[in-house]
Amino acid sequence: MKRPGMNVWSALFAVLTVASWVLLGSFIYFCADALRPSPALDNIPADCDGIVALTGGKNRIEAGIALLRQKPNRLLLISGVSPHTGLNPILTATGIGPLPPELSHRISLGYRAASTIGNAWETAQWAKQKNLHHLVLVTAGYHMRRSLLEFHDIAPQLRLTPYWVQPPAMHDPLHPHTIRLMFSQYGKLVGAFLRLMILHQQDYEQEGFRPTPPVSPPPPT
User: Fold this and answer.
1) Which of 40, 96, 94 is nearest to 70 (CA)?
2) Range 17-22 average pLDDT
3) What is the pTM of this model?
4) What is the pLDDT of residues 159-197, one digit of tens each?
C-alpha cells in the first residue's frame, strides 16, 4: 500500500513536469515568432492613420520613418525619447538624415515614457489628442507580443497593426548575448501575462512615466 505522502510527491512531480514542457514549448514558439522577417511595407492596411515607433533598439525609428514616407498623410509618434533630445539629433544618429518639412512636421516626440507601459499610455494620449484610431506599432520582434499585450490593456479602443523589426543582435540567434536577451524578454512577457490576464492588475500611468522634474525655486531677491 502506497503512503499518502508518495501520492502528493508524485502529483507534484507530474505538475512540475507538465509546467516545464509548457514553458519550454512556449519559449521555442516565442523565439520562432520573434525571429520572423519584418513584414513588407505594402502589407500595412491603407486605413492606418498613425504610426508609433518605440525607442529602445535599432531599426525601430528607421522603420517608422519608412512607413511615414510610404504614406505621408499619416502621423508618427516616436515614444520614449530621452529628455532634451530633438528630432534632428535622432535623424542624424540613426543615419536617416534631414527630412523635408512636410514630413518632419508630422512627427511627434514622446518624452515621458520610460517603459513599455509608459509607451502605451503615451501613445493612448497622443492618439486621443490627434483623433487617431488605427496605428502601426513598430518595435523589435522579441518585444512585439508584450507591447501588444500592454497596449490592448491600456488602449483597447485602438486598432493596432504590428510591424516588427530585427535588430542586429538577432542576426546571430545562437550567440550567448542573444540567448540571454531572449530569455529576459520571454520572462518579461510571462510576467506581463500573469499580471494582466491572471491577476488582473491594472496599469497606472505613473508606473511607466519618467518622474516629472521638480520645479526649481525662484532665485532669492
Assistant:
1) 40
2) 86
3) 0.86
4) 999 999 999 989 898 999 999 999 999 999 999 999 888
DSSP state of 77: E
Q: What is the pLDDT of residue 66?
A: 96
Q: DSSP assignment, residue 209?
A: B
Instruction: Report whether 114 contacts 205 (CB < 8 A).
Output: no
DSSP designation for 76: E
Mean pLDDT, residues 58-73 taken together: 95
Query: Higher-confidence residue: 133 or 3?
Result: 133
Cell of 22: 509548457
Provide DSSP, 94-163: TT-----HHHHTTEEEE-SB-SHHHHHHHHHHHHHHHT--EEEEEEEHHHHHHHHHHHHHH-TTSEEEEE
C-alpha cell at 157: 479602443
The backbone torsions φ and ψ at residue 146, rounded to the nearest 5 degrees and listed phi first, read -70, -40
Burial category of 200 from C-beta neighbours within 10 Å (exposed 0-12, middle 13-18, buried 19 and up): exposed
CB 158 within 8 A of CB 133: yes
How many helices (H) and strands (E) are present in the chain, helices listed first? Answer: 8, 5
Grid cell digits, residue 138: 513598430
Q: Which three cell numbers stand for residue 163?
A: 510591424
For the record, the C-alpha cell of 221 comes out as 531677491
Q: Band of the pLDDT at 219, cuts 50, 70, 90?
A: very low
Classify the phi-psi angles of 82: left when phi > 0, otherwise alpha if psi is within -120 to 50, otherwise beta. Answer: beta
